[in-house]
């Protein structure tokens, strides 16, 4: 990292282009979506590791960074069109995660993204050839530091189509310890991890309740399933 301390922005971008883009296999370079995912990786690396070592380098929004990387890599794509195509594609990639409940099923774990006001269940995008169970465990571990594999039940799962486009699969996991240590393993992705009371969260048909639906818009669609499971478990727990 010492080289970056005195490098110019032009030299840094050329170095990142070589690391993340130029040497990709031909079949990946022919895919705008694959190239843009690599640009995103380069952007994270730039913001998380390069800039902290060189205070003269500015923070760069992802769209502008994409254009700069395309230029440094001499790619034959229009960067704005490529960026828009990629952002559209990202909304269609399936997402997996977990609804983590305590033993009493009256609290759940939510995470808040970096510089975001919204709360959601721990989740992330499904990798190519990855099963949903593994994706959920991986994302929960990355975002909260919690090992979910021993508690997850493959048949306790809910899948919805968010806004009719993106498939979201959430495993409902009970018995998560409230005193479990939770610390994100990501950099500049998760700002906070917190337990919330189920009854305080908004749900479909009751958006004005509790904390308000706006900050929990990705939580609301799943709450009906949480309430149903809790009711079922409470009715059968002592029978």
SSE inventory with pairings:
Blueprint: H1 9-22, H2 26-29, H3 32-53, H4 62-73, H5 79-90, E1 95-100, E2 107-113, E3 119-120, E4 123-125, H6 132-144, E5 157-162, E6 166-173, E7 190-197, H7 220-236
Parallel strand pairs: 1-6
Antiparallel strand pairs: 1-4, 2-3, 2-7, 5-6
Helix pairs in contact: 1-3, 1-4, 3-4, 3-5
Can you describe this structure?
It contains 7 helices and 7 strands. By secondary structure, the chain is an alpha+beta fold. It has 2 domains: 3-90, Orthogonal Bundle (Arc Repressor Mutant, subunit A); 93-237, Nucleoside Triphosphate Pyrophosphohydrolase (Alpha-Beta Complex), CATH 3.90.79.10. The chain has a 4-stranded mixed β-sheet with strand order 4-1-6-5. A 3-stranded antiparallel β-sheet has the order 3-2-7, with no helix packed on it. It is elongated and about 65 Å long. It starts with 8 loop residues before the first helix and ends with a helix. Residues 207-211 have low confidence and may be disordered.
Write a brief structural summary:
InterPro entries: DCP2_BoxA, DCP2_BoxA_sf, Dcp2_NUDIX, NUDIX_hydrolase-like_dom_sf, NUDIX_hydrolase_CS, NUDIX_hydrolase_dom. This protein is an alpha+beta fold and 239 residues long.
